[in-house]
Amino acid sequence: MEMLKILIIWTLIGGVKPQSFPILKDLHERKDLDYLLIDLLNVVTRDQEVTCVAIICDEVYLNVFAGPLFRRTARVPYVMTVVEDYDDLLSPNFVTLESLRAARKEGCNVYVILLANGLQASRLLRFGDRHRILDTRAKYIMLHDFRLFRSELHYIWRRIVNVIFIKYHKKIIGVAKSNAWFELSTVPFPNPIKGVFVPRRVDIWKNENFHYKRPLFADKTSNLNGEVLNVVYLDHVPSVVVTKNNGSNKIGGVEVEILHTLAEKMNFKPRPYQAANAEIHKWGQKQANGSFSGLLGEMVNGRADVALGNLQYTPYHLELTDLSIPYTSQCWTFLTPEALTDNSWKTLILPFKLYMWIAVLLVLLITGTIFYGLAKSHMNLQEYKKLQRSKKSIVDDNDEKPGLYLFGEIVNSILYTYGMLLVVSLPRLPVGWSIRLLTGWYWLYCILLVVSYRASMTAILANPAPRVTIDTLKELVESKVTCGGWGTQAKMFFEESLDEDTQKIGEKFETIDDPLQAADKVAQGVYAYYDNSDFLKYISVTKKRVFKDSNQNNTNTTEVFPRKDMQRNLHIMTDCVVNIPISIGFHKNSPLKPLADIYMWRVIEVGLVEKWLNDAMYSIRTLETKEDEVKALMNLKKLYGAFIALAIGYLLSAICLIGELIHWQFIVRRDPLFDKYALHLYYRNKNKKH
């Protein structure tokens, strides 16, 4: 059994005597109000799960709680607040405010408000609603007062709908069977209040008994009886997708499908509309006069009941509206430009990485040196055998050293080793089994290396050139592009972050209103746009389609191609800056939210949200696939590397030719032993000297 807990502020119970207030003398003497509250609280605790009861009263009604009320009601915690008759509850003092906060912290879901001054009660409701000090979805028991039903308070009764107004009717003098009685009424929810507030009677309490015995706090949101709810929406893929149809807007998207489900289950008719100047104000921001524009302005001003527009589940939005449970989580990142660098000139070296090329070069040098060493060893062996012979016959070098001229010099050795690497056969089979065995195994190595190189080269030539993109927040910080997005809230998010890279993004973050204009700046390579990945995919595909259509419609090719060369491909950054939950908005302290959350949870569990998300993005993903489809075709641009290699070969050959001519003219011809008519004798003598 829960312990009885009573918190009394300002005074003790029983401190005020009933004789002090002659206007309530009959009411206090008969104890009718005491017994009515006892019956009401017992009915509520019997039919509902009551966690705590908050009592707010003044001196006039304090004696109501001095009788048997606490003994004859269920033992639940009570938090009691007693206020002075001069207190301004639109700005309560510290003690009263702490008492109200204690009631909210304890989770009190029943409020008993007995204030003789209706203006004081109305100001309390306004304060509690504005600062969320009172739980507007709790059960309320209040005194009936016409000052509570003024037009400027009608918005309160769209939020506090589980309320019972107590109206006292005196005994008619001169009528024998006439007794005092109480009328219990409530707000006419879900029927809208039009001009004059007319409460709806629930029951009559007379002679310590309820007359009709109707449910006092029936659920008013399960069936809204076909009432029309104003739904403000903002075109933002994939939450809301607006398409033009014969001059009218047809809306679809994930949140629209959720809205139709809620409308069917809760029996209401949505009336969708856009806020004034939605293209400019979008979600809206706080203006200089304190009001809000755009979608949030419609919610804050109470003109809309539901808001659709990809609302992020953030403290900023929670302060202004009520948000449903998140139906999805979106990756928020940047739309960045791709680099225009062309690496086709590196085609010949792309198949292998740097370390692979180093290994190939080292193997070439080491193998060429080994070939040279083995050839020299074999030549020395032949010279040794020649000295041992007794015959002194002249032996031709070519017959003496068949095949050794291939690797007899270090330059030739490296050259023929390099030729085998390019799968060029040797002009003659070398002698010496050591060289022959090494040649065979080196050929196997060359075959494996060449096959790998050719396969990688084929893939590079068949596939599109690799894209140089920005995929991390660090790369974006190090780049020179300016970052931006919609609204000052996004800028504040980056500026107030504890991450150093994120703060640097905030320093160069600029706000922009038009996403297509932002896409143009991204295509120019000077901007990165911040939004959710699905919307970035949408504007990326839209930008490509608009650019393609403009090129097809433009007949002046001299203007089209330069513009095309200046355009960069758009790329969505792979890393997410943050994953943000997304919700549907309701007006502040909306009574529709609890039941709507239950239905939304069921929709999420059965996978309908994922299905609707795929439907909303299907056409965009289809267009994106068609744009990104690349066939394995060869073009001249992919062969830039081959032409560059050929050009390098021509250049080196020309340099060598010029060097040889210079050597011939200035060194060979000026030699005293040079004889142009007997060149073979000149070179024979030259070789003997060496």
From TrEMBL:
Top-rank lineage group of the source organism: Eukaryota
GO cellular component assignments: plasma membrane
Signal peptide positions (record): 1-18
BP terms from Gene Ontology: detection of stimulus involved in sensory perception
Transmembrane segments: 354-375, 404-427, 433-453, 639-664
Pfam families: Lig_chan (PF00060), Lig_chan-Glu_bd (PF10613)
Keyword Transport tagged: yes
SUPFAM superfamilies: Periplasmic binding protein-like II (SSF53850)
GO molecular function ontology, one term from the record: ligand-gated monoatomic ion channel activity
Membrane topology label: Multi-pass membrane protein
Protein name according to UniProt: Ionotropic glutamate receptor L-glutamate and glycine-binding domain-containing protein
